[in-house]
Design brief:
This protein is mainly α. It has one domain. The protein has 3 helices and no strands. Helix 1 crosses helix 3. It is globular.
Length: about 60
Amino acid sequence: MTDEEALAKSTQAFNDARSRGRKHATHKEILMEVRRRRKRDPALAEALKQTGLMMLRAEQGH
């Protein structure tokens, strides 16, 4: 999966989790929903991992 695809899949998972919860869901509730989805969807787990690595590379200036 390309970096762009991973970022899109990760972003969509967070947006979906936000929209499924209450109108003003807390960060903790959103994270819990994304974690539940990650357990069911190996591709989402990989996308989140890849997105995290992209963020680390960006912080380090690569």
